[in-house]
Amino acid sequence: MDGLRDRKRPRPELDEELLIDHPTLYHEDGNAIIKCGRVLFCVHKSILARQSPVFRGMLSAEGGHPTLRGLVLLELDDDKDDIEAFLNAIYDGMRVDMPKLTVENFPALASAFRVAMKYEVARLRDDVLVILKREWPSKLTEHIGKSNAFKAKLRPYLTAVSGARVPNPDYDPEASNVPIVHPSSVIALLREGGVQDVDLLAPLFYDLSRRIWQLGPPFSGHNIKYLPSADVERLLYGSATLRATHARMASTIPSAFIFPSQAHAHVHTTRHAHAMAAWWSSAIIPQLLHDIGHNMQGEPVEDWETARTQAAQSLPHIAGDCVCCKGTLDYMSTCQTVLWDNIAGYFGLT
User: Fold this and answer.
1) What does the mean pLDDT of the chain come to?
2) For the chain, where are the E strands, in sequence order?
3) Contact, 277 vs 258, CB < 8 A?
4) How far is CA 282 from the centre of its chain?
């Protein structure tokens, strides 16, 4: 009998029984309903229209709209999680409150971004891009600062001015085990939204190139499976070009060793220049190129920073205004800057 009664019910009533009101985004005083699959969001037309020209056009379109429960009905083909993240953002004052980007909150950020791009919500789109640029800065100083801050967490002890070893208050033994938001996921998200911002894409591709060592058997495709084919080629070509340039710079003896300034003859000696050249060949070149030969591991930009820091601590003649010592540090800084400034070119982004 129940089945017979169901067959006699009007079709809309049966359909409504299959729908689910969103637990927090079904506003009882709303005047429009968004339907994503089976999930209903009851919202305010004025809020949607104010934030999105696309929604404004949809709501003002002539010819009327279908209704549900007496309210205007917008049936969208978007994922319900994307719409949920978007509505949470616009009902929270258009704020994307993420002090730190993590694998836990990235899906919500990505969802809000997708909808913001599709429905032209400029403020929300720009806020997401600010968060991403904070995580992948385009300035070398900021990039090195983030890298050094992370490495500081891996050192259990620090060396005090006195030379004594003291506990590192920032030491975090689990820092290296914390899952990261993979740069390939971010690149794929930006490509999906049509973003061509080189200042963001360049550091992302560099970060991705640092993780090539993660690509190895068994091959699952996990790391780059979301990338378009063109970006996979861009990654491989750019990584090879970057490392070849890095290797060439590292293998070049700084000119200060070969052509010592005559103005510093009272400090500089040919013997010292030869000693410095030997030091470069025996200490610096192996240090800079060590990772390159091990499954394409390595962080060229960071490697120059490490080498320069260690050189500044070990070279004995810097205080005496030695042209070789100062020239060495200047050459290292130049190599690091040249690599960073040309990242976009290496990966074919310009």
Assistant:
1) 83
2) 20-26, 32-36, 39-43, 67-68, 71-76, 157-159, 165-167
3) yes
4) 36
Cα separation, 144 vs 137, in Å, equals: 10
Euclidean distance between CA atoms 138 and 156, whole angstroms: 30
pLDDT in tens, 290-310: 766 554 457 899 999 999 988
Q: Which residues contact 330 (CB under 8 A, 6 or more apart)?
A: 256
Find tokens 């029984």 and name the residue. 17
CA 120 to chain centre: 22
How many Cα atoms occupy the beta-carbon half-sphere of 215 within 13 Å?
16
Closest CA to 343 of 237, 233, 232, 184: 237
Q: What DSSP element (H or E) covers 308?
A: helix 300-314
Give me the numbers of helices (H) and strands (E) for the chain, helices first please.
17, 7
User: Can you read off the two tokens belonging to residue 19?
Assistant: 């729908």
**Cα-based distances in Å from 245 to 202, 240, 242, 251, 336:** 16, 9, 5, 10, 11
Q: What is the pLDDT of residue 278?
A: 85
Number of C-beta neighbours around residue 290 at 10 A: 12
Q: What is the pTM of this model?
A: 0.83
CB under 8 Å to 112, separation ≥6 — which residues?
A: 82, 85, 86, 88, 89, 96, 124, 128
pLDDT tens-digit profile of 62-82? 667 788 999 999 999 999 999
Measured in whole angstroms, the distance separating CA 52 from the mean position of its chain's CA atoms is 27
Cβ of 102: how many Cβ atoms within 10 Å? 13
Which amino acid is residue 326, in one-letter code? K
pLDDT tens for each residue of 232-251: 999 999 999 999 999 999 99
Distance between CA atoms of 338 and 239, rounded to whole angstroms? 15
Q: What's the residue count for the chain?
A: 350
Domains delineated in the chain: 2-133 (3.30.710.10), 240-346 (no CATH)
Question: Within a 13 Å sphere around the CA of 55, how many CA atoms are in the beta-carbon half?
Answer: 30
